[in-house]
Amino acid sequence: MSGNEKKRYRFRKIAAILAAAGMAAAQAGPAYALPSPTVSGIVTGAENGKDSAGKDVNIVTIPVSSAEQEGRLEEKELDAIDEMRDEHGKENVFGAEKGKELQVLDILYVAVDGDESQVQYPIDVTLKVTGVSSDSVVYVLLYEEERGEWTIIETITGDEIALASLPHAGLIAVVSDGNTAAALEQRYGRQQGVSPKTGQPLLISLTPIAGLICLAGMVCVGCREKTRRKENW
Q1: Listing from the earlier edge strand, what are the strands of the sheet with 102-112?
Q2: What distances in angstroms separate CA 136 from CA 77, 117, 125, 132, 196, one per listed residue?
Q3: Whose CA is closest to 152, among 161, 160, 170, 164?
Q4: Is 86 in contact with 152 (CB distance < 8 Å)?
Q5: Cis upstream peptide for 122 (omega within 30°)
Q6: How far is the C-alpha of 152 from the C-alpha of 56, rounded, in Å?
Q7: What is the pLDDT of residue 171?
């Protein structure tokens, strides 16, 4: 076997291995995890609030993923978030019958931007909530860390806002009835508040990648065979 024939042999062998590996991966179709995405919803922020003394308070809303990275959430709060995304979480707060009719629109962390020691609670918070109106049925829930439970906060809705008086800053969930959630979905063309559980990854399949590997291997073999035929000609 000449030197050129040996090179062609090695090349065809490598290409065949790539093609076989690609086919196997495509058939198996395993999925690998991507980092947990930022929790997104319909609460886009908050207007400046007022404390019980009437002083302006700068309120910020922080997505759950960012709050977790910043160390604002403890393990039991992360468990509470996962529970609230499950239907049983709403049932635990509102009761079995009513809880089944409700849908979580958003979960986020509300914080005071500035010296919190100067704030006199409770604080009136105006959340910017996309798509809601004065006719919308919306509840703001505040997580009570010491008791380990969600508390219903009296909520008033207006033109794309929800007003709630919070006894402290912290983790909140914005929940609506089925009619409000359906109206938002119809208006914006997507189901609101559907996000992976905290730490739950998005999954992507390697099937398309495997297919490309397989195709590349076949093309390489074909090109080399074509070259060999030209050389023999």
Answers
A1: 59-63, 102-112, 170-177, 138-144, 149-153
A2: 28, 34, 18, 6, 25
A3: 164
A4: no
A5: yes
A6: 24
A7: 97
| Distance (Å, whole) CA 112 – CA 124 | 12
- Do residues 30 and 205 lie in contact, with contact meaning Cβ atoms separated by under 8 Å? yes
Structure token digits, residue 178: 């089925």
Amino acid at 106: D
Q: What local confidence, expressed as pLDDT, does residue 16 receive? A: 52
- Report the candidate in 173, 172, 149, 154 with the shortest Cα–Cα distance to residue 164: 154
Question: What three-state secondary structure class fits 71?
Answer: coil
In whole angstroms, give the CA distance from residue 160 to residue 40. 17
The CA distance from 118 to 48, in Å, is 15
- Helix, strand or coil, per DSSP, at residue 29: coil
Distance, in Å, from the CA atom of 40 to the CA atom of 27, rounded to the nearest integer, reads 34
Q: How wide is the angle at C-alpha 112 spanned by C-alphas 78 and 67, nearest 5°?
A: 25
Is the entire prediction scored with pTM above 0.85?
A: no
The distance between the two most distant Cα atoms of the chain, rounded to a whole number of Å, is: 94
Low-confidence ranges of the chain (pLDDT < 70): 1-41, 186-233
Query: Which residues are CB-contacts of 176 (< 8 A; sequence separation ≥ 6)?
Result: 102, 103, 105, 132, 136, 137, 138, 139, 184
Sign of the torsion angle spanned by Cα atoms 115, 117, 118, 119: positive
